C-alpha cells in the first residue's frame, strides 16, 4: 500500500512530465481501437446488407460465382433458360419464384457521357426490378421502370450526380449502348456501402445485358410458411437434378461477406501493423521519460532506501507509475479510437462509401485489446528504468551521484550492437546475392530486423561520432551557443541515441519504400522505352473489358496506321511431357503485336507464333516441360474446343511487361471458339501514321468520347500513370507512418522538456553569467535539431540500404534499375531539421521564462 501511495504521489507530482508519454500511448491505442471499430463496423454494414438483400434461395447457372453474377470473358453474365423458372416453381415448399437479370460488367453515363460509376471502387450494378429488390428499396420519386425507355436509379447516385426525373442515361455493355430516361428514384432501406444501382424492366434488362430474351441470371425463390431455407434448397435441387447452383440466404450472405473479407483483412492488418510501429516508437519515449524521472529523483530514492525501502519496493514504485500511465493513456486511447473510427467513416462517405453510425460496432474485445496493449507496452518499457532505479545505493543517491556508470555494460552493449548490425548486414548481402527472389526475401526480412535492432542498440555509440560531425558542420557557425548545444546532446549519449532511434524507425521505412517505389517506376519506364513500339495504349482503369463497339470506333479513327487487339483467357494445357495444366493463361493478339511489343526471344521468331495453329511459350515453361521449337501443345480453350498448337517461338522469362505470357493469334483462337463466346479485348494498342501522332492522339480520344470507361494514353501518359499509381500507394503508406513520426516528435519534445527541468540550476547559472534568453532558446533549439538530424541520418541511411537490397530482388523479376530518389531523401532530411525546431518550441519557451534566482536556488 505504501508503494502505491508513493507511486500515486510521484505520478501526480510529475503529471505534466508524464503528459506527452500518455499522449504517445493514447495515439497508439487509438489507432489500434479505431482500426478494429472501423473494420467491425464495415463488417456489420455488409452483413446487414447481404442478409437483407438475399432471397430465401437463389438459383443461378453453374458458371456463376457464389456471390452472384460472374461476367464471362465475352462481357456477358452467365445465364439459364427461362424454362428453369417453371421447374423451380414445381418444387415442394416454393411459395413464389421470379427470374431476374443483372450484370456488374457495365458502364452507365449521363447525357454528357460522364461516368456515373462510384469513385470509391464499389460496383456499378444494372439489373431488372424485382419483388426481392422492393424489399430493400423504396421508390421515393416517380415510378419503377415499365418499358425500354425507362430506368430507375438509387437515391445516393442521383444525389451525387444531380440526376432528376426525365434525365437521359446510357447503359454501355458488351451488347451495345442502351439509352433511357430516369423514371424513378429508389432509396435504400439498409446502409448502402457505395454501390451505384440502376433498374430496368425485365425484357429490357435481358436485351441490354445479355442480348437475348428468355434467359435469367438468377431465380429468387421464396419459401412457403414452415419451410426452412435448407429444406427449400434440397427440394429445388432435387427438382432441377443438380443442373444449376442453389444457395440459401445464409450461404449467399456468407459468400458475399467472404468476398469482401480479403480486402477488409488486408486493410485491417496493414493499419494494425502501422499501429505496432507507433507502439515501438512509443517505447523509446517511455523509456526516456522514466529514465530521466528516475535520474531527477535520485536523492529521493536514496532517502527511501536509507529508511528501509528495498530494491524491489523502489522497482515496484516506478512500475506502478508506469501502470498508472498505461491505464490513463489506454482508457483515453480507447475513447479516441471510437472517435477515429467515426472520422474514418465520414472520410469514406466523402469518397462515396456510405457507412452509417447507426451500425457503429464496438465489440468487447476492442477496449480489452487496447487496454492490455497499452498497459503491457508501457510497463515493459518502464522496466529498464525501474530496474536501474532499484540499483541506486543509498549513500550514492544521498550524495546525488546517481547510479554508477557501468563501463562494462556500455562495452557489452556496443559489442552486441556491432554483432547484430554485422549479422544484419550479412543477411542483406545474402539477400542481394540470392538467385531466387523467394529465397532472398527471407534473408531481406532477417537483415532488416537485425540491422534495425543493431542500430537501436549501438545508437549511443553512434551518437558520439555523428553528433560531433553534425556539430562541426552545422553548429560551429553559431559560436559558443552552438558548442553548448553540441555538448548538451553529447552529455547523455544513451538518451540521445534512444530519442534519435524513435525518429530513425519511421524515416528508415520512408526511405526504403521511396527507393523501392522510385526503382519500380524507373525500371518500368526503362522497359517501356526498350520494348513498346506502339504510340497509344487503350484500357479501362477499372478492369472492364473493351466492347466490340469501342474497338470498331478505334479502327475507324483517322490517322492510325494499325490497331492491335489483345485478349486474355484461360485454357488447359497438355504438354509433351504428358502433364495437364489447368486454367493456364494464354494471350491471343493480332500479329502486329509482335511489332508493338519487342519481346526478347531465346529461340525462333515471335512473328511466327501468330501463324495458323501456332503459339509461343516462355523459357521457364519450356524448360519445365521439355518443350522445343516444333513441339506440339494441346490447348483446351475455356468455353471452346481443343487445339493442337505448334510452338514457333520461345520468349525470355526475364521481362517486366507481359512476363510469363504465351501468345497465339486471334484468328487461331477464333477457329476453336464460338463467336458468342469469343473473349473481349483486355486492351488495345494503336499506332499513328508517321508524323500524325498528335492529330491521331486527339482523334482517338474523340472516337472514344462515348466510352468514358476507357482511357487513351501515349507512352508519356502511361509512364505518368505508373508513377501516379505507385505515388498514391506510397503517400497512403507515408500517411500511416506519420503516426509513428508524430510519436517520435513527442519523444523529442519530452526529452527536451525533462532535460530543461534536469538542468534548471545549470540554466540559472548560465543566465546569471550573461547568457540571454534568446541565446538560451537558440541553444535548446539547436540541440533539438541535432538530435532530429542524428535520427534522420541513421534512418535514411538504413532505409536506403534496405531499399537497395530490395531492388536487387526486384531485379530478379526484371526490374533492373536502381533509382535513389534524392529529392525525396533530401526533403526528408531538411524536414527533420524543421521537426527538431518544432519540437523545441515549448521547451525553449519554458526555459527562457525561468526566474534566474529561483533556478540557481534549485537543488
From TrEMBL:
Q: Does the keyword Cell membrane apply?
A: yes
Q: How does it sit in the membrane?
A: Multi-pass membrane protein
Q: Where is the MacB-like periplasmic core domain?
A: 19-238, 499-700
Q: Where is this region: Disordered?
A: 57-80
Main localization is: membrane
Please list the coiled coil stretches: none
Location(s) in or outside the cell? Cell membrane
ABC3 transporter permease C-terminal domain residues are: 274-394, 736-851
Q: Which GO terms describe its cellular component?
A: plasma membrane
Q: Which residues span the membrane?
A: 269-295, 318-342, 362-384, 414-432, 444-477, 498-522, 732-757, 782-804, 824-845
Keyword Transmembrane assigned to the entry: answer is: yes
Protein family: Belongs to the ABC-4 integral membrane protein family.
State what protein this is by name.
ABC transporter permease
The scientific name of the source species is Streptomyces actuosus
Phylogenetic placement of the source organism: Bacteria, Bacillati, Actinomycetota, Actinomycetes, Kitasatosporales
Amino acid at each position: 500500500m505504501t508503494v502505491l501511495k508513493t507511486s500515486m504521489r510521484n505520478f501526480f507530482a510529475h503529471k505534466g512530465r508524464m503528459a506527452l508519454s500518455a499522449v504517445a500511448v493514447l495515439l497508439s491505442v487509438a489507432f489500434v481501437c479505431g482500426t478494429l471499430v472501423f473494420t467491425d463496423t464495415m463488417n456489420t454494414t455488409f452483413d446487414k446488407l447481404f442478409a437483407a438483400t438475399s432471397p430465401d434461395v437463389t438459383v443461378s447457372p453453374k458458371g456463376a460465382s457464389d456471390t452472384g453474377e460472374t461476367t464471362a470473358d465475352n462481357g456477358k453474365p452467365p445465364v439459364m433458360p427461362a424454362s428453369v423458372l417453371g421447374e423451380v416453381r414445381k418444387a415442394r415448399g416454393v411459395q413464389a419464384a421470379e427470374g431476374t437479370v443483372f450484370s456488374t460488367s457495365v458502364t452507365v453515363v449521363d447525357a454528357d457521357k460522364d461516368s456515373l460509376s462510384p469513385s470509391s471502387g464499389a460496383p456499378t450494378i444494372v439489373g431488372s426490378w424485382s419483388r426481392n429488390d422492393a424489399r430493400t428499396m423504396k421508390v421515393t420519386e416517380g415510378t419503377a421502370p415499365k418499358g425500354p425507355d425507362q430506368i430507375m436509379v438509387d437515391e445516393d447516385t442521383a444525389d451525387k450526380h444531380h440526376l432528376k426525373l426525365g434525365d437521359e442515361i446510357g447503359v454501355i455493355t458488351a451488347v451495345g449502348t442502351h439509352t433511357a430516361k430516369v423514371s424513378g428514384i429508389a432509396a435504400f432501406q439498409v446502409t448502402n456501402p457505395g454501390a451505384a444501382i440502376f433498374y430496368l424492366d425485365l425484357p429490357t434488362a435481358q436485351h441490354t445485358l445479355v442480348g437475348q430474351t428468355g434467359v435469367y441470371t438468377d431465380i429468387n425463390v421464396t419459401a412457403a410458411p414452415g419451410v426452412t431455407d435448407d429444406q427449400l434448397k434440397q427440394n429445388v435441387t432435387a427438382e432441377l437434378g443438380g443442373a444449376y447452383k442453389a444457395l440459401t440466404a445464409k450461404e449467399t450472405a456468407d459468400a458475399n461477406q467472404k468476398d469482401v473479407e480479403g480486402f477488409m483483412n488486408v486493410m485491417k492488418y496493414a493499419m494494425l501493423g502501422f499501429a505496432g510501429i507507433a507502439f515501438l516508437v512509443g517505447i523509446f519515449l517511455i523509456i526516456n521519460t522514466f529514465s530521466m524521472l528516475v535520474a531527477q529523483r535520485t536523492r529521493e530514492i536514496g532517502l527511501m532506501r536509507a529508511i528501509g525501502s528495498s530494491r524491489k519496493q523502489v522497482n515496484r514504485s516506478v512500475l506502478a507509475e508506469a501502470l498508472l500511465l498505461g491505464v490513463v493513456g489506454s482508457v483515453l486511447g480507447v475513447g479516441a479510437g471510437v472517435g477515429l473510427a467515426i472520422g474514418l467513416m465520414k472520410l469514406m462517405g466523402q469518397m462515396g462509401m456510405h457507412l452509417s453510425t447507426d451500425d457503429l460496432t464496438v465489440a468487447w474485445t476492442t477496449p480489452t485489446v487496447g487496454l492490455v496493449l497499452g498497459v503491457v507496452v508501457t510497463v515493459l518499457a518502464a522496466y529498464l528504468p525501474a530496474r536501474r532505479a532499484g540499483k541506486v545505493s543509498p549513500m550514492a543517491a544521498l550524495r546525488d551521484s546517481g547510479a554508477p556508470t557501468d563501463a562494462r555494460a556500455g562495452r557489452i552493449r556496443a559489442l552486441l550492437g556491432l554483432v547484430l548490425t554485422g549479422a544484419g548486414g550479412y543477411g542483406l548481402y545474402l539477400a542481394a546475392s540470392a538467385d531466387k527472389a523467394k529465397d532472398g526475401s527471407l534473408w531481406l526480412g532477417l537483415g532488416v530486423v537485425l540491422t534495425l535492432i543493431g542500430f537501436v542498440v549501438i545508437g549511443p555509440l553512434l551518437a558520439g561520432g555523428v553528433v560531433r560531425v553534425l556539430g562541426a558542420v552545422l553548429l560551429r557557425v553559431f559560436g559558443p551557443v552552438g558548442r553548448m548545444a553540441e555538448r548538451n546532446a553529447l552529455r547523455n549519449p544513451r538518451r540521445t541515441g534512444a530519442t534519435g532511434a524513435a525518429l530513425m524507425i519511421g524515416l528508415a521505412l520512408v526511405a526504403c519504400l521511396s527507393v523501392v517505389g522510385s526503382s519500380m517506376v524507373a525500371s518500368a519506364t526503362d522497359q517501356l522505352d526498350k520494348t513498346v513500339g506502339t504510340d497509344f495504349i487503350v484500357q479501362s482503369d477499372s478492369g472492364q473489358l473493351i466492347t466490340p463497339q469501342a474497338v470498331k470506333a478505334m479502327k475507324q479513327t483517322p490517322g492510325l496506321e494499325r490497331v492491335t487487339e489483345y485478349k486474355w483467357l484461360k485454357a488447359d494445357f497438355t504438354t509433351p511431357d504428358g502433364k495437364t495444366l489447368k486454367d493456364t493463361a494464354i494471350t491471343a493478339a493480332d500479329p502486329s503485336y509482335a511489332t508493338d511489343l519487342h519481346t526478347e526471344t531465346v529461340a525462333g521468331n515471335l512473328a511466327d507464333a501468330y501463324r495458323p495453329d501456332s503459339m509461343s511459350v516462355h523459357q521457364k515453361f519450356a524448360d519445365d516441360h521439355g518443350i522445343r521449337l516444333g513441339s506440339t501443345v494441346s490447348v483446351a480453350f475455356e468455353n471452346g474446343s481443343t487445339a493442337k498448337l505448334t510452338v514457333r517461338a520461345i520468349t525470355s522469362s526475364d521481362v517486366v511487361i507481359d512476363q510469363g505470357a504465351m501468345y497465339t493469334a486471334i484468328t487461331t483462337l477464333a477457329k476453336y471458339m464460338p463467336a458468342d463466346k469469343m473473349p473481349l479485348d483486355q486492351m488495345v494498342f494503336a499506332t499513328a501514321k508517321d508524323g500524325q501522332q498528335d492529330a491521331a492522339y486527339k482523334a482517338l480520344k474523340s472516337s472514344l468520347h462515348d466510352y468514358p470507361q476507357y482511357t487513351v494514353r501515349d507512352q508519356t501518359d502511361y509512364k505518368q500513370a505508373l508513377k501516379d499509381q505507385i505515388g498514391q500507394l506510397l503517400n497512403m503508406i507515408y500517411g500511416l507512418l506519420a503516426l509513428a513520426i508524430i510519436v517520435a516528435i513527442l519523444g523529442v519534445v519530452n526529452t527536451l522538456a525533462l532535460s530543461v527541468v534536469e538542468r534548471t540550476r545549470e540554466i540559472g547559472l548560465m543566465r546569471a553569467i550573461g547568457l540571454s534568453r534568446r541565446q538560451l532558446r537558440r541553444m535548446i533549439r539547436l540541440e533539438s535539431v541535432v538530435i532530429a538530424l542524428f535520427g534522420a541520418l541513421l534512418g535514411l541511411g538504413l532505409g536506403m540500404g534496405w531499399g537497395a537490397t530490395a531492388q536487387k530482388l526486384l531485379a530478379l523479376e526484371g526490374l533492373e534499375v536502381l533509382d535513389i530518389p534524392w529529392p525525396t531523401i533530401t526533403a526528408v532530411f531538411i524536414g527533420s531539421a524543421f521537426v527538431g525546431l518544432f519540437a523545441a518550441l515549448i521547451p525553449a519557451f519554458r526555459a527562457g521564462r525561468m526566474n534566474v534566482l529561483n533556478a540557481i536556488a534549485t537543488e
